[in-house]
Amino acid sequence: MVIGYCRVRLYLPDNHSLKGKRQAIKSIIDRVRGRYNVAIAEVEDQDLWQSAILGISCVSSEEGHANEVLSRVIETIRLARAEAELLDYELEFIHA
Fold first, then answer.
1. What is the pLDDT of residues 63-85, one digit of tens each?
2. Which of 32, 25, 17 has its CA nearest to residue 84?
3. Where are the alpha helices (DSSP H) in the chain?
4. What sign for the dihedral angle of Cα 76, 81, 82, 87?
5. Is 33 helix (H, G, I), strand (E, B) or coil?
6. Which residues contact 78 (CB under 8 A, 6 or more apart)?
């Protein structure tokens, strides 16, 4: 069993309130959940208006598959440029 984890740092340049941030992040989270079988949540920077850090994880039998799924998720987030700009991401795989 392989657990793939991705930590994504986002910048929301046009956002000026926590309410606006919640709407933008919810849109991204709903889009990712609807397309991929992953767990996703905002894990840091909840009180900052223009910054968000998302945690995304998936479980697979092979590291290559987990890497492929998380890479697709990152690309989906990257294409959501109207809502947020992807600044950075980290991938990690745990073999259990």
1. 999 999 999 999 988 887 667 88
2. 25
3. 18-35, 63-78
4. positive
5. helix
6. 86
Spatial separation of the C-alpha atoms in residues 91 and 56, rounded to whole Å: 9
- Asked if 52 and 63 touch (Cβ cutoff 8 Å), the reply is no
DSSP-assigned beta bridge partners for residue 34: none
pLDDT in tens, 5-55: 999 999 988 878 888 888 888 988 998 998 998 999 999 977 888 889 999
**Identity of residue 31:** R
Global confidence as pTM: 0.86
Q: Is 8 left (phi over 0), alpha (psi -120 to 50) or beta?
A: beta
Structural domains of the chain, ranges and CATH numbers in brackets: 2-95 (3.30.70.1120)
Question: Which residue type sits at 52?
Answer: A
DSSP 68: H
